[in-house]
Specification:
Layout lengths: L1 H18 L3 H29 L2 E3 L4 E3 L1 H30 L10 H26 L3 H19 L5 H36 L9 H7 L5 H19 L7 H8 L2 H30 L1 H24 L6 H20 L1 H33 L4 H4 L3 H4 L1 H14 L6 H15 L3 H27 L12 H17 L5 H15 L3
Helix pairs in contact: 1-2, 1-4, 2-3, 2-4, 2-20, 3-4, 3-10, 3-13, 3-19, 3-20, 4-5, 4-10, 5-6, 5-10, 6-8, 6-9, 8-10, 8-11, 9-10, 9-12, 10-11, 10-12, 10-13, 11-12, 11-18, 12-13, 12-17, 13-16, 13-17, 13-19, 13-20, 16-18, 16-19
Length: 498
């Protein structure tokens, strides 16, 4: 029942929020749904550690360690964003972001849109992770686009509508390629499925017979899947929608896209990577993944170095981290898979705080431009600006923060696999992005005091920031044993077939 409840709770919350007529009721429904979803995700992870696999409805819903890890991370991001969103939208209302003839009417309608669509967005991401059928997984990823594209238009500005349009068109093209890749995967397998054609797209069936698939068709299928789900993950050169969307969407939405949707897209890619590796061997997919991983990191570097917006710099950081995770898969071996999944975990915990700090600063200054912000925000916003600088160090892989561990593990995988030139480029790109990020954010936080008025303190935002910061600090020194066991089990699913 846990698998079913994971889908039902957000869907019921969406209906409740749509029917609600008061802001506090919508907030309460969303908070309760987020906490309950996270509790169910923890229960699922515990069941996976105990039993290995959990399924329901004739294996229509299916979860192994890899699924459980993605579900847990999505649910964690959902809780963090649900808490922060309360204070974020209340500040929007106080700042009179929307012109209203009758006070509160437009804002209430906007909030209903957010609190109804966000749980549907989360339910779609959860379905991606627990659906056994690769066709249903594709439908779920398409559903994430349909739910989130309207959230991007929340503020109704011309730039918001343009960003949503770009997101929908580029994402649609990418998902079309992923659909063709899924169809070709079935075509490559149909001759060996025999009487199991009704379950022909079930991953649990395909993975047991992947070595017998048609090799040429499977190669073409994987290229299409990589381009399709790579578009959804924002890998270069399919990344152009990300900077616009991340800078125009409400901060909680951008955080869920960066830390939740990215995981789902890479999860879909992982499932097909496992099939391809078992069918044609690991080298074919490995070379492609290394190329796209390095390309994503390399393209992010100049844009980080010359960036003018602290919201857009977070988008290029996300492109960079997507490249790092894909690069870990490309390097292969036990260390490559482990490093990639560790990085996915640490990135999901760290990136929301980066968005929350940027959102607080943007709301206070009414701009996301470094030039207009001038600097010295440590005096006006001591908590948000200090944590912004701390999280910058964390997200760029500075020790002792946890991302240093995952990036070092990926680097070890590169040397173990004999990928010496990619390893050198990997380090060079990391150093360049660290330098660009630190110069921009340190100048924003520690520059001369421009006599910016003190920011008012919102307890919802304050405690969501401090809570996430505490987790990030603890995770730099201690990873809970059950979580590490789940990550190791997920890594074995990837490596045992390569």
């Amino acid at each position: 029942m846990v698998l079913l409840l994971l889908l039902l709770v957000p869907c019921i919350a969406a209906i409740g929020a749509f029917a609600a007529r008061r802001r506090d009721v919508m907030e309460g429904i969303n908070l309760c749904a987020a906490v309950l979803t996270f509790a169910l995700a923890v229960v699922l992870a515990g069941s996976i550690l105990k039993f290995g696999v959990v399924s329901a409805f004739g294996e229509m819903l299916y979860a192994d360690a890899l699924s459980a890890l993605v579900v847990l991370l999505v649910a964690f991001v959902y809780v963090a964003c649900a808490i922060y969103a309360v204070g974020y939208f209340r500040d929007d209302e106080k700042s009179e972001v929307f012109e209203e003839d009758v006070p509160g009417t437009v804002m209430l309608g906007k909030l209903r849109k957010y609190y109804a669509l966000t749980p549907l967005f989360v339910a779609s991401m959860l379905l991606v992770a627990i659906s056994n059928n690769l066709g249903i997984m594709w439908v779920a990823i398409e559903a994430t686009t349909l739910a989130s594209v309207f959230l991007v238009t929340f503020y109704g500005r011309a730039n918001s509508l343009e960003a949503a349009w770009k997101y929908a068109i580029i994402g649609g093209v990418g998902l079309s390629m992923a659909l063709f890749g899924t169809i070709l995967t079935y075509y490559s397998a149909h001759e060996v499925l025999g009487t199991e054609t009704l379950a022909g797209l079930n991953w649990s069936v395909l993975v047991t017979k992947a070595s017998q698939f048609d090799h040429s068709t499977m190669r073409i299928a994987f290229i299409l899947i990589l381009l399709g789900y790579g578009t959804k993950a924002g890998l270069a050169p399919m990344h152009t929608w990300k900077p616009d969307v991340y800078s125009e969407a409400p901060v909680p939405v951008a955080a869920m896209l960066a830390a939740g949707m990215l995981n789902c897209a890479l999860y879909g890619l992982l499932r097909f990577l496992i099939l391809t590796s078992r069918c044609v061997g690991p080298d074919f997919a490995s070379n492609l993944l290394i190329f796209f991983g390095l390309l994503s990191m390399g393209i992010a570097v100049p844009f980080v170095l010359v960036q003018r917006s602290f919201r857009r710099i977070l988008a290029y950081s996300s492109i960079d981290h997507g490249g790092i995770m894909v690069l870990g898969l490309g390097f292969g071996g036990p260390l490559g898979a482990l490093g990639m999944l560790l990085h996915m975990t640490f990135h999901s915990i760290t990136k929301p705080l980066l968005f929350f700090c940027a959102g607080n600063i943007q709301q206070h200054l009414h701009t996301d431009q470094f030039r207009k912000a001038k600097g010295g925000l440590i005096h006006a916003m001591p908590i948000s600006s200090a944590l912004f600088l701390m999280t910058t160090l964390a997200v760029t892989g500075s020790p002792p923060f946890s991302m240093f561990q995952s990036e070092f593990t990926i680097l070890r995988a590169a040397f173990d696999g004999g990928h010496f030139l990619p390893a050198v480029l990997f380090v060079a790109f990391l150093v360049a992005i660290f330098a660009g990020f630190l110069v921009h954010i340190a100048g924003l936080v520690l520059g001369p005091d421009p006599e910016v008025p003190k920011a008012r303190t919102c307890l919802w935002k304050k405690y969501s920031l401090l809570g996430l910061a505490s987790i990030i600090l603890v995770m730099g020194f201690w990873l809970p044993a059950p979580l590490y066991a789940l990550i190791q089990s997920a890594a074995r699913i990837v490596t045992e077939v390569r």
